[in-house]
Amino acid sequence: MTTALYPAALLLELTRVVRATPWLLEVLHVIATDAPPKSYAAAGVIRNTVWDVLHGRHGAEPTGDIDVVYYDPACQRVTLEQRLKRRLPQYRWEVTNQATVHLWQSAKLGSPVEPYPSLAAALRSWPETATCVAVALGENGGLEVVAPFGLTDLFSMIVRPSPELRDPNAYRCRSRDKDWQTRWPRLTVLPLDAPLHSSSAGAIAGPRGPG
Length: 211
Known about the structure:
The protein is an alpha/beta fold and about 210 residues long. Helices cover about 40% and strands about 15% of the residues.
């Protein structure tokens, strides 16, 4: 996958969201110190926080699980999850090793899924483009971001299906059952056959220093 920087304005906005959310900044510090290298907070913990801020909310705690993703075939997920829970037991941690995620996808779909070659490749199979965002603290104190479809849909509050999701029904069910528009009424939820807008393309950025 081509490596490219995201638009500076969106990286700056993401940095502002993180630094304006003390509990998220603490979570990222714990991940940086207690998790394997290249571990990230991802999915709902990033998406929900951004949408909350865009709707004028600054929550004192996460609205759901803290999803942590990493890519390491040799690392035991359970051990890492227990370590993070000991550090911040007040939160619900959900750790996923993206090097092995193809195994449960294969079981769920009833057909073999090839192993993903990287974290970014695994994220591309997630249901919504706005959810395919992972964030970590870089060595220089800035943010390191992995978002294979970019940050535009996240900050435009667009729920769009990933063009590489493995289970189309997962998008239909999540769009219906998550009831996102009740909490975030400014969201636009697109149908399953919605095209991927060119501005949603992205890759890997960072680490980037504070803006």
